[in-house]
Amino acid sequence: MITILGLLAGALTTISFIPQVMKTWKFKETKDISLLMYIIFFTGILLWFSYGILIDNTPIIVANGVSLVLVFIVLSLKIRYG
């Protein structure tokens, strides 16, 4: 039950990035997105992902692994379209 709770919490926080990814991808407009914030956030998620691997915690690994991909997409688009 605890793992399910963790997976649900991770899923909800992770999918919250999807609208930003879709909007950024569609309009290729990133002027309102803070590059520094996304760099810091990406680093934090990478550390959480690493932590999840080290403690072998599936919800942390899955949620942060998917979040890494989504945040990386936005970060890449921000760098590309400035």
Description:
The protein is an all-alpha fold and 82 residues long. The protein has a single domain, classed as Monooxygenase, CATH 1.20.1280. The chain is 84% helix and 0% strand. The chain has four helices and no strands. It has helices at 2-15, 18-27, 35-55, 58-81. Helix 1 (2-15) packs parallel to helix 4 and helix 3 runs antiparallel to helix 4 (58-81). The longest helix has 24 residues, at 58-81. It is elongated, with a radius of gyration of 14 Å. The N and C termini lie far apart (43 Å). The mean pLDDT is 93.
List the helices and strands and how they pair.
Blueprint: H1 2-15, H2 18-27, H3 35-55, H4 58-81
Helix pairs in contact: 1-4, 2-4, 3-4
Low-confidence stretches: none
Q: Would you list the SSEs in sequence order as H and E?
A: HHHH
Provide the domain count: 1
Give the rounded overall mean pLDDT.
93
- CATH topology heading: Monooxygenase
Class in CATH? Mainly Alpha
**How many whole angstroms does the radius of gyration measure?**
14 Å
The CATH architecture assignment turns out to be Up-down Bundle
Give the termini distance in whole angstroms. 43 Å
Question: So how many helices?
Answer: 4
